[in-house]
Specification:
9 helices; about 70% helix; mainly alpha; single chain
Length: about 190
């Protein structure tokens, strides 16, 4: 039975009332939208679950993420966009210098703002103090990142239990550079 909005309340023929075939089309479109929404929800849930398993130390997921990332880097199997952020974050939790260099190369080679943002957000999940310092330096280098992009990595890094202290110490030590870079209002530093 068609939804109530599509049912005619009059028994008389109404030229404006939708025909059975048009109500069937509307129903099919509605079903297709519901299926697309369900698939999108499942994809988001899969990504969140994957990331949380990696964040809480599931070695199997972390190793799987490294394999996915390596296949993505060498071009043999690109990571689907819906999973890319979760995989990048999972890989960065155990990143070494080589992995960080691969991410920087990936960042430099992409023109997609969405992809650049995913990479910068993943930077903040690194647990290696030396790499965290390099990430902060990278973010403040205006030849490497745009001011509005750098904020993504700095915020991500500052929410990391290990990175928060690094971010604060970096902020205090580089306040003049930060004020110069963000005094235009992006960081509300002009107040």
């Amino acid at each position: 039975q068609p939804p109530p909005l599509l049912m005619s309340t009059s028994t008389k023929s109404n030229a404006n009332a939708p025909s059975v075939s048009s109500s069937s089309k509307v129903r099919k479109q509605s079903d297709a939208q519901a299926n697309a929404t369900a698939q999108s929800d499942a994809s988001q849930l899969r990504s969140l679950l994957y990331w949380h398993l990696a964040a809480y130390g599931d070695e199997e997921v972390r190793e799987h993420a490294k394999e996915l990332f390596q296949n993505h880097i060498d071009g043999s199997a690109p990571i689907p966009g819906s999973m890319r952020g979760a995989v990048y974050k999972a890989v960065m939790t155990t990143a070494n210098q080589s992995t960080y260099s691969q991410f920087k190369t990936l960042f430099k080679d992409t023109e997609s703002a969405e992809e650049r943002s995913r990479i910068l957000a993943a930077f903040g999940y690194c647990e290696d103090p030396n790499i965290l310092s390099q990430i902060l330096d990278f973010c403040m280098d205006s030849t490497q990142t745009h001011a509005q992009e750098a904020v993504v990595a700095i915020l991500s890094l500052s929410s990391n239990r290990i990175g928060a202290r690094h971010a604060w110490n970096f902020f205090v030590a580089n306040i003049d550079q930060i004020v110069a870079r963000y005094s235009g209002g992006l960081f509300l530093m002009s107040r």
